[in-house]
């Protein structure tokens, strides 16, 4: 691997697949462009307008169905106005052996319902747990949820559960992640499920491909100019020729034949 990382000029792009530590090592030890993400700190935010059944089922699926996946829910945020949903959500998770780490308000709510939980630390909000551990935080509405996700998240996949379309729109627009989801599990963030064919990776970059990446996401543009003696000097200054932008679909075939 270290020899490949030195092949700048021969290798155009590296797509690492593996652990957080492995991807970070690749990113830190090469000058070759790297497509990928080092962690999947994915959130679900339960809004005050959330449907109870959707909240319980989606949160359970996102954390339990495949805990080690990069797109599984790693942090749960619950609107203070939806705190009454928390015991039912947590009960379902604990029944599936999820260990909860909560903010002080979460601990208080769960203790009153007899649901076990440990105190969360500041480090928990930026840690990617790949087993059945779930930090939970009570937030004061969608704005605080967005701020928390953009601060602590890894820009991978984040979901909102709610029926208030104004809150949903704000979340989907303002959360700075490669995939944002409404009323569905974060586990749907996947190239095959998006219809991209074989997924080559998930990118949290903002230059070129972002999100689940298939073959089309790796394709770049090549410009081919077919001239007939044109000079730039004829297109600038007084009496310059204008540029005419028209589709000339047949010019390639007419001049160079079929490829």
Question: What is the secondary structure topology, with strand pairs?
Answer:
Blueprint: H1 2-5, H2 20-28, E1 42-46, H3 52-64, E2 73-79, H4 86-95, E3 99-102, H5 104-112, E4 118-119, E5 133-139, H6 142-152, E6 157-161, H7 165-174, E7 179-182, E8 201-203, E9 211-213, H8 215-218, H9 251-256
Parallel strand pairs: 1-2, 1-6, 2-5, 3-4, 3-5, 6-7
Antiparallel strand pairs: 8-9
Helix pairs in contact: 3-4, 6-7
Cα(first) to Cα(last) distance is 38 Å
The count of strands amounts to 9
**What is the chain-wise order of helices and strands?**
HHEHEHEHEEHEHEEEHH
State the major sheet.
7 strands, parallel
Structural classification: alpha/beta
Radius of gyration over alpha carbons?
24 Å
User: Which regions contain 5 or more consecutive residues with pLDDT less than 50?
Assistant: none
- Cα shape: elongated
Q: Helical residue percent?
A: 25-40%
Mean pLDDT: 93
DSSP summary: helix tally: 9
Arrangement of strands in the largest sheet: 4-3-5-2-1-6-7
- Report strand %: 15-25%
Short description:
With 259 residues, the protein is α/β, with parallel strands linked by helices.
